[in-house]
Amino acid sequence: MPSMAITGAQRLNRVFQIDIETCEKCQGPVRIVACVEDPAMIRQILEYVRKREAIDSQAQLPPERAPPQLCLFKET
């Protein structure tokens, strides 16, 4: 009986329920274009992503406001 090898993407889906072959937004197919294995390059990419997330999260914060004035809501 021949053994059936599974791809890395199939293994990720089976073990971690991570589907890297389907776009989360449009449910369309995703094409893998690179596999980065160099630790220095991975660190560089992750640092870029962290900085980008910090900038994006600051841009999405609503404007600050004063705390509610609870005395306005008390029944007299």
Poorly predicted parts? none
SSE succession:
HH
Q: What helical percentage do the residues reach? A: 25-40%
Please identify the structural class as seen in this structure: mainly alpha
Cα separation of the termini: 83 Å
Q: What's the quaternary structure here? A: single chain
Mass-distribution shape: elongated
Mean pLDDT: 84
Strand content: under 5%
The Cα radius of gyration reads: 23 Å
Tally of separate helices? 2
Total strand segments: 0
Sheet with most strands: none
Describe what you observe in this structure.
The protein is mostly helical. The chain has a domain at 8-58. It has 2 helices and no strands. The chain has helices at residues 8-16, 39-59. The longest helix is centred in the middle third of the chain and has 21 residues, at 39-59. The protein is elongated and about 80 Å long.
List its traits.
76 residues, 0% strand, elongated
How would you briefly describe this protein structure?
This protein has 76 residues and is an all-alpha fold. The chain contains two helices and no strands. It has a domain of 51 residues.
Topology overview:
Elements: H1 8-16, H2 39-59
